[in-house]
Amino acid sequence: MNEASISQPTPAAGIPVDGLDAFKRAFRRHAAGVAVVTALMPDGAPAGFTATSLASLSAVPPLATFNMAQVSSSWPAMTVGNRVAIHMLGPRSRHQAERMAADHAVRFIGDHWHSGPYGVPILNDVTAWMLGTIVEVHPVRNSAVIVVQVEDGSLGDEDDALLYHERRYFKPGALV
Fold first, then answer.
1. Per-residue DSSP letter, 23
2. Which residues fall within 8 angstroms of residue 25, CB to CB, at 6 or more apart?
């Protein structure tokens, strides 16, 4: 087989495929679960953000990871030794995801949360939450991977999964 006979992948008609655009378009098509991470800032103010990068790292010890931009308003709270709460959301708690993705000045206005263990903000009406301590922060260019050791938590009411796909929230449909 010569080089001329090797077929090269061709982009779909009319869709640009430069590096950044291809990356953004591809990840918009990758459905992800929705979580919210909350913590206390160095001055004691509540901080939080919506995350679609939550993943389990290990069961023993119980470790979870999430990613975030270092320019995030919550970045100053992401220090080794600080406690965070990771909240899992379902369609009934979609409003929590939307609120925590809004302007940081309004994220904690209202009665949708309460002060939990160690003063860490706990969101109400979530499917589950876990409390943990940040054990590692791995800066990668202008973002970071945060590793949390989970120490406590609670289950809320059962709900369907909440997925983020193509810049919209969904719940799973039919099994395939």
1. H
2. 15
Residue whose entry in the numeric block shows the structure tokens 């919209």: 168
Separation between Cα atoms, residue 36 and residue 32, nearest integer Å:
13
The three-state secondary structure class of 24 is helix
- Taking CA atoms, 22 is separated from 12, 67, 112, 143, 160, in Å, by 11, 20, 37, 19, 30
Question: What is the secondary structure of 74-138 as a DSSP string?
Answer: TGGG--TT-EEEEEE--GGGHHHHHHHHS-GGGTT-SSSEEE-GGG-EEESS-SEEEEEEEEEEE
- pLDDT tens for residues 98-154? 999 999 999 999 999 999 999 999 999 999 999 999 999 999 999 999 999 999 999
The per-residue pLDDT for 4 is 44
Which residue type sits at 109? I
Taking the CA atoms of residue 99, residue 160, residue 164 and residue 54 in that order, the dihedral angle to the nearest 10 degrees is 80
